[in-house]
């Protein structure tokens, strides 16, 4: 405002007269009365600073989400280390997930819908609210289940990671499991030797692995949603450690990763087999899928 030619005394005079109103430490609007929602969004972002962006539920709202009653306070994300200014309107928070590439190129600064949908689930007041927000974003065409799945794979640790994967898998046609036959067929289609599935390994044979190429010492463990549950974490870790002690290469294939980006994960399996001496024919690189 000052750069546009207004002086501090002029701004103060307009505020005292009630023709303008202060909306935060950094912002003033040049009218009186209630603020339209789009003005509220801009105020929230400007209060957040140069690298601020509407995020989560607020990011979806800015992208056009309909049929949802938004929160009064607008969630704004800034990177770690940025100054945080919270106001009655703006809920500004630092996040380690902030990335400039995630910000939509047009409109009020907001995260892209697939990014906002994932974070809306992680940050919602309840599991039900979070799953509903993510589902609505896909159903209303703001983004696709495939793009959301790609973003979900970026989440390494979060209390709602299992819920996130389950919700996305439901949107990907309800495919929450991967059968033995489906995995073996996928290996065959990609020119890989067939593994032994559900094989018992370990000193006493009590560890069951999902797939193993014993000749080359390569194991693939397929992580379904249940592998994020606390009751499975210890057993999974013990099984992997036991295999590592017997010089096996253990690769983890999250079910969501298989559904969203199978080519990339199978390329890793192929690389592990080659490195272990498997005589696979060389072929030109193809797009992941």
Lay out the secondary structure.
Blueprint: H1 8-17, E1 21-24, E2 27-29, H2 37-48, E3 53-54, H3 57-63, E4 74-79, E5 90-95, H4 113-123, H5 127-139, H6 145-152, H7 161-171, H8 180-189, E6 196-201, E7 207-213, E8 218-223, H9 230-245, E9 249-254, H10 255-260, H11 262-275
Parallel strand pairs: 4-5, 8-9
Antiparallel strand pairs: 1-2, 3-4, 6-7, 7-8
Structure, briefly:
By secondary structure, the protein is α/β, with parallel strands linked by helices.
Name of the CATH first level of the largest domain: Alpha Beta
* Number of distinct beta strands: 9
- Name the average pLDDT: 84
Please outline the major beta sheet.
Answer: 4 strands, mixed
Order of helices and strands: HEEHEHEEHHHHHEEEHEHH
CATH architecture designation of the largest domain: 2-Layer Sandwich
Task: Tell me the distance between the termini.
Answer: 50 Å
As for the CATH topology of the largest domain, it is Beta Polymerase, domain 2
Order of strands in the sheet with the most strands?
A: 6-7-8-9
């Amino acid at each position: 405002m000052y750069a546009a030619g207004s002086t501090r005394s002029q701004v103060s005079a307009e505020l005292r007269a009630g023709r303008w109103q202060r909306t935060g430490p950094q912002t003033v609007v040049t009218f009186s009365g209630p603020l339209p929602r789009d003005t509220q969004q801009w105020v929230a972002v400007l209060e957040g600073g140069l690298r601020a962006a509407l995020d989560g539920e607020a990011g979806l709202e800015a992208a056009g989400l309909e049929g949802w009653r938004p929160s009064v306070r607008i969630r704004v994300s800034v990177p770690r280390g940025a100054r945080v200014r919270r106001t009655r309107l703006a809920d500004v928070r630092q996040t380690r997930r902030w990335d400039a590439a995630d910000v939509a190129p047009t409109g009020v600064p907001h995260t892209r819908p697939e990014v906002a949908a994932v974070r809306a689930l992680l940050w919602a007041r309840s599991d039900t609210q979070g799953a509903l927000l993510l589902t609505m974003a896909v159903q209303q065409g703001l983004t696709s289940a495939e793009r959301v799945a790609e973003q979900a794979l970026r989440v390494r640790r979060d209390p709602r990671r299992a819920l996130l994967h389950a919700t996305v898998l439901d949107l990907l046609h309800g495919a929450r499991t991967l059968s033995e036959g489906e995995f073996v067929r996928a290996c065959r289609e990609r020119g890989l030797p067939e593994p032994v599935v559900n094989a018992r390994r370990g000193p006493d044979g009590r560890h069951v692995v999902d797939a193993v190429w014993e000749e080359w010492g390569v194991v693939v463990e397929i992580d379904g949603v249940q592998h994020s549950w606390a009751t499975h974490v210890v057993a999974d870790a013990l099984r992997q450690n036991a295999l590592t002690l017997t010089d096996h290469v253990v690769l983890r294939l999250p079910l969501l990763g298989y559904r969203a980006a199978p080519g990339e994960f199978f390329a890793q399996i192929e690389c592990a087999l080659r490195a272990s001496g498997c005589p696979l024919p060389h072929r030109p690189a193809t797009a992941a899928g």
